[in-house]
Amino acid sequence: MGDRGPLTLLGVPIDSVGTAGGTELGPAALRELLGPEGFKDAGDTSRQIRGLDRDKANGWLAFDDILKMTAEVRARVAELTAEGNVPVILGGCCTLLPAALAGARDSLGEFGLAYFDGHLDLFTGQTSPTGEGADFPVAASLGIAPEPFLDAVGETPLVDPGRIALVGARDQEELDLIAPFPKGLGISRIEYRDDLRHADLARVGKSIEAELASGDSKFWLHLDVDILDGDSFPATDYLMPDGLSMTELKSLISPLASSPGLIGFNVTCYNPEKDEDGKCGAALAGLLRSTLAT
Questions:
Q1: CA 105 to CA 159: how far, in whole Å?
Q2: Of 51, 65, 140, 184, which is most buried, counting CB atoms within 10 Å of its CB?
Q3: How far is 29 from 92, CA to CA, in rounded Å?
Q4: Which residues contact 154 (CB under 8 A, 6 or more apart)?
């Protein structure tokens, strides 16, 4: 894998809706579909997210469980990266991301973030319609989060906003609710779905990789499957039309997933309960295998 360390699977079986099932089942399903060849395996984290009540002070759902999960994931990722591994985190939902970034920073120092997602994930506990932790990962990584959460991840921003690329967002309702964000946050690059519609996607991916991995710079890669079109990939909870096809996503993400600058990768929000014929999971596993290879 070039200058990269070994790809090492870590399952984080969580679902921010606060009940059992759903995306909690994604890590086990993806691990089976990927098979062992080409990966080390660090097993799963143990903390889950349970509870249907929003914290009265901050608006987050199941906040205490999120704090416990965050501490565990941070420690596990710090350990893996300190040993020279490249974690491939099988989620679970996007709530895991700030913890993963915190753990990687603990051992590696500063790096960038390529964020492939159908949403910007810049809600706060006050603006989020649901209070689910999966609404907050980018905001929380920038330090826009309750104090106990910031204590759990350490100094923020976890990633300099000038080294963040947000790719694929297309939820106008979210944009209306989070306003004035993303304005004023200093995020270096936002490629909305509309920006990608007629673009050379491989070239866009290569340009993001060149920016985040210039010189000796490194980056983390996040993939939420809701970047994909809901009709062609229905195995996720917040379906939206007009997303990317799997072929388009592969063109975009390949230069980043295969980069020697990659220090970690997470895939989130695959729900095998909504994948009765297994086609979505098989396609996702195929994407991971083909793009993570160099």
A1: 9
A2: 140
A3: 11
A4: 102, 105, 106
User: What is the tens place of the pLDDT at every residue in 204-220?
Assistant: 999 999 999 999 999 99
Which are the contacts of 263, defined by CB distance < 8 A and separation ≥ 6?
81, 86, 104, 108, 111, 218, 219, 220
Between the alpha carbon of residue 96 and those of residues 76, 108, 117, 130, the distances in Å are 12, 18, 14, 17
Residue that has been written with the tokens 């994930």 in this structure: 121
- The secondary element (H helix, E strand) that includes residue 181 is none
Low-confidence stretches of the chain (pLDDT beneath 70): 1-2, 294
Going from N- to C-terminal start, the domains of the chain cover 7-292
**Length of the chain counted residue by residue:** 294
pLDDT for res 179:
97
* Burial call 95-104: b when 16+ CB within 10 Å, e when fewer: bbbbbbbbbb
Strands 219-224, 112-116: pairing kind? parallel
- Annotate 240-279 with DSSP letters as a single string: -SS-B-HHHHHHHHHHHHT-TTEEEEEEE---GGG-TTSH
Q: Which residue has the tokens 């753990």?
A: 103
**Rounded to 5°, angle at Cα 190 from 265 and 242:** 85
The architecture CATH gives domain 7-292: 3-Layer(aba) Sandwich (3.40)
| Distance of alpha carbon 59 from alpha carbon 55, whole angstroms | 5
Closest CA to 80 of 112, 110, 114, 41: 41
Residue 110 has, within 13 A of its CA and on its CB side, a CA count of 12
